[in-house]
TrEMBL record:
Family statement: Belongs to the four-carbon acid sugar kinase family.
Keyword terms of this UniProt record: ATP-binding, Carbohydrate metabolism, Kinase, Nucleotide-binding, Transferase
Keyword Nucleotide-binding attributed: yes
Name recorded for this polypeptide: Hydroxyacid dehydrogenase
Organism: Paenibacillus radicis
Record-linked Gene3D superfamilies: Four-carbon acid sugar kinase, nucleotide binding domain, Putative sugar-binding, N-terminal domain
Length: 478
């Protein structure tokens, strides 16, 4: 295949692909199949960006039995629990997953409700795999005596240009298919990896517990042959083996979802490690247009400014921030990370930012608070997490100190948006309204929040073009 830069291009692979499955609208049937047994699809989201494909559902930031009971009683089949484990150490991630599984199983037993777990993680393969799926699997086995037949690995996220082709996961950059293991994300200080072929990635991440040949693969040919072929393959999976899913489109995932529901109705049991697109398909959630301006501004707060908080350090975020600063009259306030990490300077640096944020918002000016762009990092994983947490805590304290109600809040980056939601805004349960653009979800804060009923835009660090952050602000201000 002829490609530029020595890489595959999305255009060049098209002539070699089988046609998508001929039945185009499987989503209503999928939704109907979920509703019949009133099954709950519970998505454990390791940062708040996982709701970037869904709408009109709840996201919980706590998982006590009382809140779970309340959510189980609702008619909706899908809900999210924000665990934020990608921003925590491994021991905390394990504890949280175990605690959630125990509480969910207790409430499900009380109410006689079936459920499945989707462990939602990053579309560029960062996060605690296999720890999280192992913990959920072991806990459910201990509580019920049952074992999953397989854990499906589905990192496809089409809105962000993430596809899986011939077992390798790719990031689309325009037409170029960049293998995920060659991207900046694979060099992550905490969750880095070397393998691109997902069967080898599983072997790398499980430290050899599963070898490439242990992985079960659902090919694009099978998916595009229709649900019968995929169901037949899934019926053979057992022993909680890893199942690699190739997918280039929602049509592919819809075929998978229908086949899964059929296999599950015949007694098969699966757990999922996925990015965001699978949940929309498996939940039978229909498409929705991007949210209009009216949904992005808090009613009654139009005279105040809006607040953008940027914590993510990925290159895409930095470029988006630069475009915003260079092409708008937004007020820039840079939080100097070295000062935040220095106990003697921390309080003065925080006070400087807090005073100006409050003044500017009250005057109706939009403000962007951003951590200084030079990444402060060390070789130790635990210390890097601690640095991230210290910076995130400072950003949270700024939000906690807000006196004027912003007309909107945008949080950029996974750890940042999670901490601001749970600690800065005290959100216990929010409603996902939809998206402002591809892969950028909007929450409506609950009654219990510091500011109730305001739009909270959760902007992933690695999503969008260089203009997407600027475009979001321009849409609100149009």
């Amino acid at each position: 295949m002829s490609t530029h830069s020595g890489k595959l291009s999305f255009t060049s692979i098209q002539p070699h692909l089988p046609a998508e499955w001929k039945e185009v609208n499987l989503r209503p049937l999928i939704k109907q199949m979920n509703e019949a047994p009133h099954k709950k699809i519970i998505v454990l989201d390791d940062d708040p960006t996982g709701v970037q494909t869904v709408h009109d559902i709840d996201v919980l930031t706590q998982w006590d039995k009382e809140l779970l009971r309340e959510t189980f009683e609702k008619q909706e089949n899908v809900f999210y629990i924000l665990t934020n484990t990608r921003g925590l150490d491994a021991a905390a991630a394990e504890r949280i997953n175990r605690e959630i599984a125990e509480n969910v199983q207790a409430v499900a037993s009380e109410t006689g409700t079936k459920f499945v777990f989707v462990s939602r993680s990053d579309s560029t393969l960062r996060g605690y795999y296999p720890l999280e799926t192992d913990t959920l699997s072991e806990t459910m086995n201990r509580l019920t005596g049952k074992e999953y037949d397989g854990h499906l690995i589905i990192p496809a996220f089409f809105e962000g240009g993430r596809i899986t082709y011939e077992n390798t996961h790719y990031i689309l950059d325009g037409d170029t298919m960049l293998p995920a293991h060659e991207s900046e994300f694979a060099k992550d200080k905490v969750f880095g990896y070397k393998q691109g072929d997902l069967t080898k990635w599983v072997a790398e991440k499980t430290e050899g517990r599963f070898q490439p040949e242990d992985c079960f693969v659902i090919t694009l040919d099978q998916l595009r042959s229709g649900p019968d072929a995929v169901e037949e393959a899934l019926m053979k999976v057992q022993g909680n083996r890893p199942v690699i899913i190739n997918a280039l489109s929602y049509s592919d995932l819809d075929v998978l979802s229908l086949a899964l529901l059929r296999a599950e109705s015949k007694g098969k049991s699966f757990i999922f490690r996925t990015a965001a697109s699978f949940v929309k398909s498996y939940g039978g959630i229909p498409d929705l247009d991007y949210l209009p301006k009216e949904k992005l501004i808090a009613k009654g707060q139009e005279a105040h400014g809006g607040l953008i908080v940027v914590g993510s350090y990925v290159q895409k975020t930095t470029r988006q921030l630069e475009h915003l600063l260079n092409n708008s009259d937004i007020v820039p306030l840079q939080l100097i990370v070295e000062k935040i990490l220095d106990p003697t300077e921390r309080l003065n640096e925080l006070k400087r930012i807090i005073d100006e944020v409050n003044e500017r918002l009250a005057q109706g000016e939009n403000v962007v608070v951003y951590s200084s762009r030079r990444l402060v990092a060390v070789d130790n994983k635990a210390e890097n997490l601690q640095i991230s947490r210290t910076v995130s805590t400072a950003l949270v304290q700024i939000v906690q100190s807000l006196k004027a109600v912003p007309k909107f809040i945008i949080a950029k980056g996974g750890i940042t948006s999670s901490d601001i939601a749970t600690k800065g805004l005290n959100i216990r349960k929010a409603r996902v309204l939809g998206q402002v653009s591809a892969g950028v979800p909007v929450w409506l804060t609950g009654d219990e929040a510091k500011f109730s009923g305001i739009p909270y835009i959760v902007f992933p660090g690695n999503v969008g073009t260089d203009d997407t952050l600027l475009d979001t602000v321009l849409k609100i201000e149009s």
